[in-house]
Amino acid sequence: MLEIIKGAGLLIYPLSLCSVIAVYIIIERLYALRKGAVLPDDLVDAIIEGKSPQGGRHSVMARIVDYAGRHKGDPEAIKAFARLEINRMERGIPYLDVIYIAAPMLGLTGTVMGLLRVFGQISPETGLPDPAAFTKGVSLALSATLIGLVVALVAIVPAGYLSRKIENDAAKIDLLLERVLSTQAKS
Questions:
Q1: Given 7, 34, 75, 81, which is the most exposed site by the fewest CB atoms within 10 A?
Q2: Where does the sequence pass through the membrane (predicted)?
Q3: Domain ranges of the chain
Q4: pTM summary value
Q5: Tens of pLDDT, residues 118-154
Q6: Helix, strand or coil for residue 180?
Q7: Helix/strand/coil (H, E, C) string of 2-57?
């Protein structure tokens, strides 16, 4: 394993940075998007039943309901605030998208660097590369590519999951917001 990391050469630093950033974003978003932080059951139940919501005051939906309560009669402002809250839920996801696209590109850069090293070491007398330089160049090429793909895989699966979760939660928020606005219109 250490040989693979060493074989990646200087590209290990940006690939490591991508990996650390991706893991941080994934953990932070999983925590921030847990059910109780977005749509707590007691709050959802109260909205569905048309009651005054009491629980989950620090959740996304609670902030929307609170804003709606302070801005009765302005449904467009309330909907705009809900869109802002949904945008906040998406925080960090575009960076994951960049990471899972950039990491393989960094790996491919390592492939090109390794191949350049191999072909740059061709002996004019024999027309063949030096075996040691050939091995090191191929190692750099394959190691950087492997690490880039691993970093991309670490980012792409959670990015897809988190994006889908945000879409689902946003649809639920829209539905519940319509219920809140309907209840406000009746009162």
A1: 34
A2: 6-27, 98-120, 140-162
A3: 2-186
A4: 0.84
A5: 777 777 777 777 787 777 777 777 888 899 999 999 9
A6: helix
A7: HHHHHHCHHHHHHHHHHHHHHHHHHHHHHHHCCHHHHCCHHHHHHHHCCCCCCCCC
* Alpha-carbon span 80 to 184, nearest angstrom: 17
Both tokens of 134, joined, read 């050939």
Calculate the CA 180 to chain-centre distance: 30
Neighbours of 154 (CB within 10 A): 19
**Rounded CA separation 142/117 (Å):** 13
For the chain, helix (H) and strand (E) counts, in that order, are: 8, 0
Neighbours of 119 (CB within 10 A): 12
> Burial letters for 63-72: b for 16+ Cβ neighbours within 10 Å, e otherwise?
bbbebbeeee
- N- to C-terminal Cα separation, the chain: 66
Region for 9 from its dihedrals, namely left if φ exceeds 0, alpha if ψ lies in -120 to 50, beta otherwise: left
The Cα–Cα gap between 101 and 124 comes to 39
Tokens of 70: 């302070």
Helix axes 131-186, 93-120, angle to 10 degrees: 170
Helix, strand and coil in the chain, % to nearest 5: 80, 0, 20
